[in-house]
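Running low. Any example?
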Amino acid sequence: MRRSIPFALILAAAACGPAEVVVTMEIDVQNPDAEGTMQLALSDIEVQLIPFDRDVVFDSMTTAFGTPEPEVPQDLIEQRAEVQAAQAEWDAATRRWATIRDTLQKLSGVLETLNRGSGDYVVLFREFNDWDSQLGAAERAQERTFSAFDALQQGTIRASDSVRVLQDNWADDAFAGVGTVFAEKQSVLGLDWVMDTTDASGVARGGLMVKPGQYWIYARYEQAYTELYWNVPITVEGGEPLTVSLTRSNAQERIKL
């Protein structure tokens, strides 16, 4: 469930302090062009420095509300895991088909430059035929895996929407007035609340200037089926900029409906 509060409602006038925080955001993702993973810089992500633990506030308001948050049913979690696995299979089939197609295009281009009577042409032509014989099967595999993925996905959309509506309605009641609570806590602490956005290289710098003190770095990044959520405590002191890296290792991965 998204617990996002409009920044304008909770940001008091923050004077620039003497301490700078630099935040880098980078996660490992599946390499689309090869086996294994690659590092992806997360650009255009809002990063906030908050002078208190926002999760503690939400937990306290949840307890005071008395009615627990509607949970995602276990069978829906399992169904969504099947959808995710089916999509991964479809993605793999698509990459296989693309590899064969690209290889055929490259071989065709080389064959056009060769004398048909040459030995090189004969060798490459046989290779072309070998790849060409695999193209039809790859296309069928791509279509089959997409159909399986689409059928599973359609089966979970309505159930996911229903749970999300229940959670959103619950949050509207449970967290009514949370912006006021946030503003009061910041006022009592007398510390800054600032935000910045990561650039193309996944770095937020320049806008995260605060008074020394205890802060929490808050950010989130949406993926296909989950979101990465950061609420990382740091101690800001004067002097050299403090650099903090947000990665999968210090994020919570939460289901996203």
Observations:
- The longest strand covers residues 19-30.
- The chain has two domains: 7-51+190-255, 74-171.
